[in-house]
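Q: I'm writing up a methods section and want to include an example of the input and output format. Could you take the sequence below and give the corresponding predicted structure tokens, formatted cleanly so I can copy it straight into the document?
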Amino acid sequence: MKLKSIIVEDEETSREILKNYLKKYCPNVEIKGEAANINEALELIRGQDLDLVFLDVEMPYGNAFDLLDKVGDRNFETVFVTAYNHYAIEALNAHASYYLMKPIAIDDLIKAVDYVVEIKTKEDALQDQVLVPKTSKNVDGKITIPQQDGFEIISIADILFCKADDNYTEIYLNNNKRKIVSKTLKHFEETLKGSSFARVHKSYLVNVNEVVKYVKGKGGSVILSNGKEVMVSPSKKSELLSYFK
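A: Here is the clean output for your methods example:
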């Protein structure tokens, strides 16, 4: 798969190094342009349909996050390339697919590109298909959730999604009811393993049988049968898409 890409980096030497690395080790990356600041980058992004943007953080006239704010919703994946590791959390919140530190390690660059290829391949495969979970089967299992006066039994198939709330978990059911349980989301991730549930975000665990639509852009998102839209973390996107034919 060819990835139409641009490099956004204010230092010419850094652009040349990255360009040479990509040409030698990632020949499937097609560089469609270069930008030295966010104004040039914005023009390039709006002028073509891109798959991947290599993005430095610190630039003239603003930084990478300013650029992404101006772009708004997007279909391309983003790989941050920076000398500063303290931007990692912001990059995650900006739905970056990968975070590369300068000087760039070739193995890490290859991993970043391979990850984007994996995501794009799965997205393209689903583009014109009806979304059918591979695990779409009747689930007869039940789980128990503790209550002050004992415990309640609920059917796994009735769960739409679970949402983290510190050391508590909110369980949303398909009858519009919500249960609050004094267990972490990690607990329910382990409990529901093998039962058609996918951890799509640090705060969300969704029943893939209740997913009715996948939306590309930024990190992506899924629409559930009750209309709830749940954001998908870039690190979880490939795993989620693997659930579907």
